[in-house]
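Sample log: Biotin transporter.
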Amino acid sequence: MSIAAAAPRDYLLRPWTGTWARDAALVSGAVVLTALLAQVSLPVPGSPVPVTGQTLAVLLVGTTMGLRRGVVAMGAYLLLGAVGMPVFADGGSGAVALIGPTGGYLAGFLLAAAVMGRLAERGWDRSPLRMLGLGLLGQATVFAVGVPWLALSAGLGPAEAIAAGFTPFIVGGLIKGALAGMLLPSAWRLVRRETHVPNP
């Protein structure tokens, strides 16, 4: 039985699931993608949080793999990082990364994957405009966890935490949302042609 064999909703990679081996391969691929995009990292002056490609990976993983597999993939990614694999930004790893200033953003990946996966299962990733909205919602979910954690761990006030942990990432977030808005609907058109998946 697969991770989400009983899930009635549709999502992009569902035609390629169905066994534990396939699920494990998809989850492993999602972890590798997230780890690779995490290395696309740019420091932000005055902030302990870098701009990375991780959130784009979370958007893609959540929407293409559905809620359960998306959460499993992000959980596996965090677990590997926690036990010492250099999968976080700039090759970071260890439990300290999960409790430091960026820990809230990492934890937010789990919640964002769940939100993205559930809404994708309901068809939010089929059109560019709705996918843009879904991408922005997923990133907002990460920031909703990450910014308060940054404030607590770094001893920042609300305005300081927003200035250091949210404002510098607005433009990048819009770009990532736009990329997802273009990629996912196009991918759906390919899947429908190849597998004859009906339009919901």
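Observation: Strands lie at 41-42, 51-52.
Observation: Residues 1-8 have pLDDT under 50 and may be disordered.
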